Recover the amino acids of this structure.
């Protein structure tokens, strides 16, 4: 399969100077089942273990990241926790004191802005506002100095929630399942990034494409990797996330794979991916 937009093989093309505060990364792919939430969770924890201050943002109304981290808004001890939909619905700027009502520490070491099903109704509200694509970007300006990384999970669609995440971010990380049909998702997210770059956020860049659910036992997997290398060049991560039982099991225990089984192949994969994220962000900041 040949990807359109081959001329877009630009890595780390951010025009911005060294950013103030956190590096903001959206993890996105309009195709579901490629490991977005798993990648947000495990990269976040891996970066914490490297001494980084990390905030994860659950931008998906399905709230899987929130559940993954063992947080249940509205129930003890999270009765007073405000969720991401309230950031969008706030009618006035969120001051330094109020912003912490949205952020909760977790046992995994990352901080979280949680979501619940109320987030699904936010789009209807946003359509009435002229600044609907940049609400999240303004909110992050109030907390950016508190973190080294802010990493956003997104729904499997290119809706206003995803667009807000892209408008707020310096980088986009695209997880892709090692199957040929998944390559179509790269084309669509590229198109969305180009739209965001031309209209709202000229500094956004693709951090890279991270292969997930990799299996050495399937011949097709290697064929997909070779196709990705031909089409993406240096945008393709060297790290790959193997199809590993510990990754799937860890979510059921509300733990990252690094906490659940730090000796597993999955944990090792995410440690390597986190190291590559750090290297790519450092190179991007100096580009």
């Amino acid at each position: 399969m040949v990807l359109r937009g081959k001329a877009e093989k630009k890595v780390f093309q951010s025009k911005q100077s060294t950013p103030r505060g956190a590096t903001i990364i959206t993890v996105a792919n309009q195709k579901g089942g490629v490991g977005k939430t798993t990648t947000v969770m495990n990269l976040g924890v891996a970066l914490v273990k490297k001494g980084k201050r990390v905030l994860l943002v659950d931008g998906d109304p399905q709230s899987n990241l929130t559940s993954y981290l063992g947080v249940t808004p509205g129930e003890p001890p999270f009765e007073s926790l405000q969720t991401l939909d309230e950031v969008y619905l706030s009618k006035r700027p969120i001051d330094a004191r109020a912003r912490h009502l949205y952020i909760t520490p977790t046992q995994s070491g990352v901080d979280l802005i949680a979501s619940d099903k109320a987030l699904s109704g936010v789009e209807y509200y946003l359509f009435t506002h002229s600044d609907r694509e940049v609400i999240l970007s303004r909110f992050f300006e109030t907390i950016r100095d508190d973190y080294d990384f802010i990493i956003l999970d997104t729904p499997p669609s290119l809706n206003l929630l995803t667009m807000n995440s892209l408008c707020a971010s310096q980088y986009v990380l695209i997880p892709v399942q090692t199957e040929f049909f998944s390559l179509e998702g790269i084309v669509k997210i590229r198109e969305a990034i180009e739209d965001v770059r031309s209209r709202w956020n000229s500094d956004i860049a693709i951090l890279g494409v991270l292969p997930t659910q990799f299996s050495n036992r399937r011949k097709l997997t290697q064929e997909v990797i070779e196709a990705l290398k031909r089409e993406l060049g240096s945008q393709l991560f060297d790290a790959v996330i193997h199809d590993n039982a510990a990754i799937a099991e860890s979510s059921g225990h509300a733990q990252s794979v690094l906490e659940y089984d730090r000796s597993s192949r999955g944990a090792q994969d995410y440690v390597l991916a986190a190291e590559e994220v750090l290297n790519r962000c450092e190179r991007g900041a100096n580009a």
About this structure: Residues 1-19 have pLDDT under 50 and may be disordered.
